[in-house]
Design brief:
By secondary structure, the chain is of the alpha/beta class. It starts with 5 loop residues before the first strand and ends in an 8-residue tail after the last strand. Helix 3 packs parallel to helix 4. It contains eight helices and seven strands; from the N terminus they run βαβαβαβααβαβααβ. A seven-stranded parallel sheet has the order 3-2-1-4-5-6-7, sandwiched between helices. Helix content is 45%, strand content 14%. Strand 2, helix 2 and strand 3 form a beta-alpha-beta unit.
């Protein structure tokens, strides 16, 4: 068993999650690299990182919208690591839900994956987190505070995650710290918005540009590894978008 710090990053096969995984690995953590459907990307990233430090990254599949998936992931981590120094709840689902047309399955899908999954994953991993004096970092969204049109259920799920962050910070201290990172426009969605819509977003962003996944990864590493007296806080990494949303 490694004496290095250990981390679990959910939804870490690509995009922001992959950057968080790589950053924590570069900071010396052994990492459980969680994915749901993107097995090829997860195994590719794990292979790349294991070239730098063999046997330090472990890809693991689980559907976190399912209680069985949460339990399976927690079991894998508990068997692999004696303690868990960092848990990053990054896995999230995102799609529109128009009021008047929202289906019950969409509500369940978004709330289960974006809110229930992270809550019960923390609960299932309390033992190894307490052993390590660990840190939980939840990936939120600027729209947890201010709604996005046609995405009410997604925004509700992220607003719940904000309150979960603050509530668990209060309940789990002093042994476990819990914080959140709230990204603005970091990467355009895979279904990119039209050019005019992009310009609207950039005009509302004080820095006038989108951010990079590394901006979020650096913030996560700070809260997880470099901020021993910070808990219950939400760090906006949004280029000033929340000033003018």
């Amino acid at each position: 068993m490694s004496s290095r710090k250990t981390a679990l990053v959910t939804g870490s096969a690509a995009r922001i999650g992959a950057a968080i995984c790589a950053t924590l690995h570069a900071r010396g953590c052994d990492v459980a690299l969680h994915y749901n459907a993107n097995r090829e990307s997860a195994e590719r990233l794990a292979g790349q990182l294991n070239q730098d430090r063999p046997g330090s990254v472990f890809p693991v599949q689980a559907d976190l919208s399912s209680p069985a998936g949460v339990d399976a992931l927690a079991g894998f981590v508990s068997e692999r690591f004696d303690q868990l120094d960092v848990l990053v709840n990054n896995a999230s689902r995102f799609y529109p839900t128009n009021i008047g047309q929202t289906q019950a399955w969409q509500w369940d899908d978004l709330l289960n994956s974006n809110l229930r999954g992270p809550y019960f994953l923390v609960q299932a991993l309390l033992g190894p987190l307490r052993t390590a004096g660990g840190s939980v970092v939840n990936i939120l969204d600027v729209h947890a505070e201010r709604p996005m049109r046609d995405h009410a259920v997604y925004c509700i799920s992220k607003a719940g995650l904000v309150m979960m962050t603050r509530s668990l910070a209060q309940e789990l201290g002093p042994s476990i710290r819990v914080n959140g990172v709230s990204p603005g426009a970091i990467l355009w969605p895979e279904a990119e918005p039209a050019a005019a819509q992009k310009q609207v977003i950039l005009r509302r962003t004080a820095l006038g540009r989108i951010g990079e996944p590394s901006d979020i990864a650096s913030a996560v590493a700070y809260l997880a590894l470099d901020a021993p007296y910070v808990t219950g806080q939400i760090l906006a990494v949004d280029g000033g978008r929340s000033l003018n949303i």
